[in-house]
Known about the structure:
Hypothetical protein af1432, 0% strand
Amino acid sequence: MIKQNHLFSVLMTGYSILKRRNNFVHNFNHCKRVFFNNVRILGLSSLPSLRILILSAMWHDVGQNDFKQQAKNHHIYSARLFKYFTKEQTYSDIVVNIILCHRNRGANKQFSPKTLLEKAFFDADKLDILNIPRSKKLIKLYSSGFSCGEFNIKDTLDFWENFIINGENTLFLEKSKKLFRKRIKKFIKFVTYTKGKFNV
Length: 200
């Protein structure tokens, strides 16, 4: 694994890139929630696994820019940035693979999650869609007239409704599905209320 004395440096590099992006959805708070979702899914596993997951969480969206339409290949760009800044340290390829596999199940079989860590991370990232404070932040931006590419109120509400219906089936692990079922009722209420408020 990346040596302990380099871990903080690599994390801070990822954080500084995220900070410069100034993203409103794929930001540091999202990274934290993805990490803790992983802990909820896998439990407090081995120290090497936790290091891998915290690095993956910090770096998985550094290639994302919420103000431009870069979502299509941000997983590839994020993985390249991580590999560049960590060089060829032990286990860095594990993190690279997790980053490559996090975006879209089945979108590209080359990047389909295969290992337990890859599957858990994919699930952890998707579960943050059900984060209501994050979603309210998006709605607030829309209310102020903001729109950028995939980010507009109608398309986002359509995306949320589709995730409500099909989201559980996109997840890999049973623990992830259990967390989905626990969170989905409040999210349905939020989406229903939002649709009514904006007449969408």
